[in-house]
Design goal:
Length: 140
């Protein structure tokens, strides 16, 4: 009887261990599916740059954040690399500055697209705060 209980316990432990290992391997292998969620934008009040979506495993490839720039402030030069980027301007005016000297002017309720391998910077050119959400996803 003791052997039978010990065997049953051992089988239960092995079953739990196998389930846990399969779950970990599936998650690490990227088989875990992202889940729908809601992120409140005003939870980032007072911060310059707040991550909204952090990428895998939270999403498939997408990252997103809320940026708030004061007048004259820039986000800093950076490149999209192998990603494409979209900005949704929520409030204010700004200019996207490109490495070659080109510029794109944006205003409240505008959407701006930036293709892969593009060095750029975003500058607040208005009198008030520039608030926008960026969305970055793998393009390759």
């Amino acid at each position: 009887m003791k052997d039978r209980r010990a065997c049953s316990r051992l089988m239960a432990i092995v079953s739990i261990a196998v389930f846990a290992m399969v779950s970990v391997v599936s998650f690490v292998a990227g088989e875990e599916k992202p889940r729908a969620k809601v992120v409140k934008l005003d939870s980032a009040a007072g911060k310059h740059d707040t991550l909204l979506l952090s990428g895998p495993p939270e999403t498939v490839t997408m990252r997103s954040g809320l940026v708030i720039l004061e007048p004259g402030q820039t986000v800093g030069k950076h490149s999209t690399g192998t990603h494409e980027e979209m900005l949704v301007i929520l409030e204010g005016q700004g200019t996207m500055l490109f490495k070659d000297g080109a510029k794109l002017e944006v205003d409240t309720n505008h959407i701006l697209y930036c293709p892969p391998d593009t060095e750029h910077d975003m500058m607040n050119t208005g009198a008030g705060a520039l608030r926008y959400v960026y969305v970055v996803a793998s393009a390759k």
